[in-house]
Amino acid sequence: MRTNSICRWLGVAAMLGLAFFFITSLALQFARTDLDWYNTHLSFYLLGPYSGWLIGAYSALAAAILCVGVGAYLALDAATRRRLPLILFVVAAASVCVVALAHTDTHETPGPTTHGIVHNVAALAAFLCVTFAMLLQSWGFRGDSRWRRHFTPAFVLAAGAFIALWFYGLWTALPRGASQKFVILLIVLWLMLVSRWLTRLPPKA
Fold first, then answer.
1. Per-residue pLDDT for 71 more than 90?
2. Dist. CA 166–CA 139, nearest whole Å
3. DSSP 120-189
4. What pLDDT shows up at residue 105?
5. Quick one: what percent of the chain has pLDDT higher than 70?
6. Coil, helix or strand for 37?
7. pLDDT band for position 36 (cuts 50, 70, 90)
8. DSSP annotation of 111
9. Contact predicate 55/100, CB 8 Å
């Protein structure tokens, strides 16, 4: 029962963090009239007006990723738990924090800077780690009687996010801003879905 209570609180915390990230990011698409949302990466919103709000939102996202990773790990039966998804979620959360604090290079930057390289590497690590963790965690739901019914929606959404990420990375003709934000939206939806399931976790049989 104590583990169930912890998982529920982690789910609630994750949902609050995800909601703050989503609402803040969405609001900035309208508030930052100096940026073209369709072609501008979210990273550029970390610079200039209202950047502090997005840095806070990224921190909330990192906390939510960590809560989901820990919550999903604890919620599964001991025989079903796998450490790799949890490790990947932890790395993804840490990478999101680095993304928020290490500014990206702008178009006016004369050449690659150290903080720009760190930002790009951290962003790549965050995307790859969280989407791969989502796939692994979703696959693990099959082996737990309380989570088996969630396998199909979780895995389909995780696979969609993973595929969308590779389309975004490899198909450069796509609008960079809109395609990146679509991938982020799929990730947030998966995290929100699992967070909700954590808050409704039934007791073990």
1. yes
2. 20
3. HHHHHHHHHHHHHHHHHHHHHGGG-TTTGGGHHHHHHHHHHHHHHHHHHHH-TTS-HHHHHHHHHHHHHH
4. 81
5. 99
6. coil
7. very high
8. S
9. yes
Q: How far is CA 74 from the centre of its chain?
A: 19
**Helical (H) or strand (E) element with 69:** helix 51-75
Report residue 189 as tokens: 């939806």
- Work out whether the CA dihedral 158, 161, 164, 166 comes out positive or negative: negative
CA atoms within 13 A on the CB side of 62: 22
pTM, whole model, 2 decimals? 0.95
CB neighbour class for 176 (10 Å; exposed up to 12, middle 13-18, buried from 19) = middle
